[in-house]
Amino acid sequence: MADESTTNCCCEAVAENDDNSVCCGDYEVTEDSKVENPTNSKKEIDSETFKRIKDMAKSLDIEIIGFGKIPKEQMEENERLQYSNAIVFTMKIGDEIINEPPSEFAQNLNNLLYDKFGKATYIISDYLRQNGFATQVAHPHQNLLDLPKLAETAGMGVVGRSHLLITPDLGPCEKIGAILTPIENLSFSKENTHKWINDYCKRCGKCIKVCPEDVLQKEYMDDNKAEFIESRCIGCNQGCTYCIEGCPFYKDGYDYVKEKHDKLEAKLKEKGKL
Ligand code: SF4
Ligand code: SF4
Question: Which of 20, 42, 114, 205 has the highest count of CB atoms within 10 angstroms of its CB?
Fold first, then answer.
């Protein structure tokens, strides 16, 4: 089944004149839908169907589900986006991948995870289509839209300085996928309780130091994120995960980091430095 959003590479741009440029290798994203989109999609999902979606996701090793609305401006800018409501999923990147140094083997492990996650997303999408809901799959390895940002919009976590999503349950260790749909009665997030991570990142910067390819540029910070030179990143063609390994949210966990952050902020306030 053809899908215009299908692409072989998740890189948005591989710099033509940069000798350090790399691309995401030969990973091929396959459009895996078995069910056609309904012509007239339903807009309201009932609680029973919704519960089945959640159970299905859990059985497919999907760890967190969130719901986000894609901003109007983004919909207008990106013609490939068919629907503005999103069901966002994450799947854990296990230690067997994180502990593996960059190599072809690490890359293969990563690709297997992308395969598993992509297939799981299509299974859920097909189920929705069977039940009368239109869908568009945002495969975890595609560049259909900025998935970490979407997950942040859905209140699931915050995009750290490393450009990785950081969540309470998985820290920076997750891949993100989504299903875009016209379903209107999803529990869209109204707030994001993880915004404090931005302040923590401002003082940390470990991901910048551990990156072997100078992908993250400290001097070009925007909105607390280091500029990310995607064309240099060997995460998607050698399975590099050093920025995950180096992140305190991976080593110490969300709750510990939050406690440390709160204590420091309290001290700074006491001294009138905040
Ligand atoms: S995956 Fe590796 S190369 Fe890419 S930003 Fe992280 S540490 Fe740097
Ligand atoms: S390593 Fe530090 S700066 Fe980078 S994402 Fe993790 S907490 Fe933020």
Answer: 114
